[in-house]
Write a sequence for this structure.
């Protein structure tokens, strides 16, 4: 078995006097899709921000490709190839589609910008048709494509997708999960952070379930689907 690409041990963090993460352990191996599941407020986004060095860890460690990045600057984290597509897309609405994409290679892969643009356009033809359009005038589904495309411009080794299906129609959710499967087939490691438990477990090899800032369940997707408590709490069966 290959060594973990991302290895998180005993991670604690929070905001002010409030501790949100309470000793989280999680691993993602090269080329693997791992799902981090949980309801709104479980601590998933705080986990993403702490791993990405946007929120300071209070205890524990984060290692990426064997290197300790627990207290690294967030630009160093991106430079190493750990790239997050944030919840809510966070595109720049007053910039064009092309300008948003180019910003994705500001810290990493700048010299490969042209080739990576062509790759993104091959994945998202609609973005190529709208390169001059202001990003804020696009539909929610198109903005999610743009956010993912911007992440891909940095040539991620691990792509964190934070609630990518949030606010999308069922048809677009199906399209999105198909895209995630395609990126995985190309060898990209993905940490899929979602409330959509059923579809996430269909596509992920392994999953972790977070409640109140701590991991309550972990294992293969098949193992978690067989867990009565999880099925009752998240799948309603």
């Amino acid at each position: 078995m290959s060594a973990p690409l991302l290895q998180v041990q005993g991670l604690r963090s929070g905001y002010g006097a409030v501790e949100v993460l309470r000793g989280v352990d999680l691993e993602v191996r090269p080329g693997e899709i791992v799902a981090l599941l949980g309801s709104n407020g479980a601590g998933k986004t705080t986990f993403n921000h702490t791993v990405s060095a946007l929120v300071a860890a209070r205890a524990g460690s984060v290692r990426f490709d064997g290197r300790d990045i627990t207290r690294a600057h967030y630009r160093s984290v991106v430079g190493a190839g750990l790239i997050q597509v944030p919840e809510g897309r966070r595109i720049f609405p007053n910039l064009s589609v092309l300008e948003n994409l180019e910003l994705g290679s500001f810290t990493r892969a700048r010299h490969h910008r042209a080739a990576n643009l062509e790759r993104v356009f091959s994945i998202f033809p609609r973005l190529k048709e709208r390169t001059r359009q202001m990003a804020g005038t696009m539909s929610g589904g198109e903005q999610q494509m743009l956010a993912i495309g911007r992440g891909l411009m940095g040539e991620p080794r691990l792509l964190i997708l934070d609630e990518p299906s949030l606010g999308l129609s069922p048809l677009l959710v199906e399209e999105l999960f198909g895209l995630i499967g395609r990126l995985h087939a190309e060898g990209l490691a993905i940490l899929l952070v979602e409330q959509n438990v059923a579809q996430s477990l269909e596509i992920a090899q392994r999953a972790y379930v977070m409640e109140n800032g701590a991991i309550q369940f972990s294992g293969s997707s098949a193992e978690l689907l067989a867990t009565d408590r999880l099925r009752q709490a998240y799948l309603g069966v």
Notes: The chain has ten helices and ten strands. Residues 1-81+157-237 form a domain with the Rossmann fold fold (CATH 3.40.50.300). Strands lie at 6-15, 18-28, 33-37, 57-64, 67-68, 82-85, 158-162, 189-194, 206-211, 214-220.
